[in-house]
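Feature request, filed as a ticket because there's no other form

It would be nice if the structure record came with a short human-readable summary line next to the tokens. Right now we just get the raw output. Example of a typical job, pasted below so the devs can see what we mean:
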Amino acid sequence: MIHIRAMGPDEVERMRELDVSEEGDIVYKWVDGEVVAVPERWTRKRWSDEECSRRISSIRDDLTEGGVVMIGAFDGDLLVGVATLRAYLSPGMSELAGLWVSCTHRRRGVATRLVEEVERLAREAGSAALYVSATPSRSAVGFYRSRGVRPTLDVNKELYEREAEDIHMVLELAKARRRGAENGSRGGRHGRTQGKQRLRDGGETGGAR
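Raw output as currently delivered:
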């Protein structure tokens, strides 16, 4: 059974348990003001020790300084997914700063549960919207679109300068809450339909954001 909980600075080292390897044949790009799918083969390997150490150091610093929350998804004692939330990005806006799910646990609802918790915490922080700088893969962009996150040209300049190839997206949290309530009220049949739609759109994301 997967359980979700907050993680502290002393647990960030456990990110070495994640295997974020993934490959695909589609990427998304902005073309004439539209996000379009472009055939392109790509591969991401499991993080090297050096890359993992860099990410661990950055996240640990963020957690220590405050303003960032780390949420883990656990299968028993094994860490299988992580999300990080920056509560304040700009007035009324939080940021989903990172989302990773191990390849062994994708398409099992792990990313969905992590993002639901991020959305809840962002609303508690008083934000009206959640900003996502998404890896331009079909799995990542498709997953976010399935949750109502939409590409935006009104980008955060600092993030865009750092991640120009990402697809920058925004979720209106009030709409997300209404949608969640509607999905819950429709029951199992709707849930099965949503699951099929997630697969068509690319399924659960494994990549960073």
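Something like this underneath would help us a lot:
The beta strands are 2-7, 22-31, 34-44, 68-75, 78-90, 93-101, 129-134, 150-151, 167-172.
Confidence is low (pLDDT under 50) at residues 189-203.
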